């Protein structure tokens, strides 16, 4: 009997209304998308500011209490930054007090997998994968949880990089870094894949069919050839080279699969 797939509850906050058939609320799909993103965009409302703030951050989903939890399980999102930055100062204040729920945040990420070029400008689109999470951020105070989060985030950049870097972190490095743990309240993801979709009247327009190129242009990120630093003395390790190759291969296959998807 298969394992039941957990989903975020559909609420007014996270419900996808436009093209709801493209939405998913499955934890595993959303968490996988978050963890495969090089950048997350985190928004919050600073006190006494007329505008919300959106910052590009590095983060990873995991569970300090259950390190073996899978991506399909409930997880927290950890993000890190400089100890005195505005976001972390607001998060620190929101974490104080026994009843403090934390700083409300919204986290978004997206991948573009292709340009969808149709006959009409109206029907142009992207093949894409996007996710949005809503939650409350509190400052991580425990040293052990802070080390867990720093390792989690570092290995999210290049798997196994933490233990293959200079260890342990110095006291100054630890003191200058703050970690926010975001307890997720809800989330959703939205995907678009497949080819061009044109209206019937355009498909009957011989002038347009004879003069306008249509199709999908795959778009994907690649890892270039590593360039050693000026004082590097080490050959590129296997764990890194394998990840760089897999990164490019997986992104290319994702883009091609999306472009060739049949309805």
TrEMBL record:
Source organism of this protein record: Tolypocladium ophioglossoides (strain CBS 100239)
Give coiled-coil spans as residue ranges.
none
In terms of domain of life, where is this protein from?
Eukaryota
Instruction: Please report the name of this protein according to its UniProt entry.
Output: Flavin-nucleotide-binding protein
> Taxonomic classification, please?
Eukaryota, Fungi, Dikarya, Ascomycota, Pezizomycotina
Database matches in InterPro entries: Pyridox_Oxase-rel, Split_barrel_FMN-bd
């Amino acid at each position: 009997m298969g394992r039941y797939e957990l989903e975020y509850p559909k609420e007014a906050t996270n419900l996808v209304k436009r093209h709801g058939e493209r939405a998913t609320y499955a934890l595993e799909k959303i968490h996988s998308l978050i963890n495969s993103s090089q950048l997350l965009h985190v928004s919050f409302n600073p006190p006494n500011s007329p505008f919300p703030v959106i910052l590009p951050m590095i983060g990873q989903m995991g569970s300090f209490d259950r390190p073996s939890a899978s991506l399909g399980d409930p997880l927290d999102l950890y993000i890190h930054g400089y100890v005195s930055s505005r976001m972390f100062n607001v998060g620190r204040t929101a974490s104080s007090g026994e009843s403090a729920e934390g700083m409300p945040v919204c986290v978004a990420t997206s991948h573009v997998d292709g340009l969808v070029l149709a006959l009409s400008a109206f029907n142009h689109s992207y093949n894409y994968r996007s996710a949005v999470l809503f939650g409350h951020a509190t400052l991580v105070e425990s040293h052990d949880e802070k080390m867990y989060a720093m390792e989690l985030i570092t290995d999210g950049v290049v798997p196994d990089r933490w233990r293959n870097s200079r260890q342990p972190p110095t006291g100054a490095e630890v003191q200058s870094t703050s970690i926010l743990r975001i307890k997720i309240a809800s989330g959703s993801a939205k995907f678009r894949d497949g080819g061009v979709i044109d209206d019937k009247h355009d498909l009957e327009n011989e002038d347009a069919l004879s003069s306008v190129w249509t199709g999908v242009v795959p778009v994907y990120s690649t890892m270039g050839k590593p360039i050693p630093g000026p004082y590097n003395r080490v050959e590129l390790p296997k764990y890194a080279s394998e990840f760089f190759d897999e990164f490019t291969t997986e992104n290319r296959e994702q883009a091609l699969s999306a472009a060739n998807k049949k309805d």
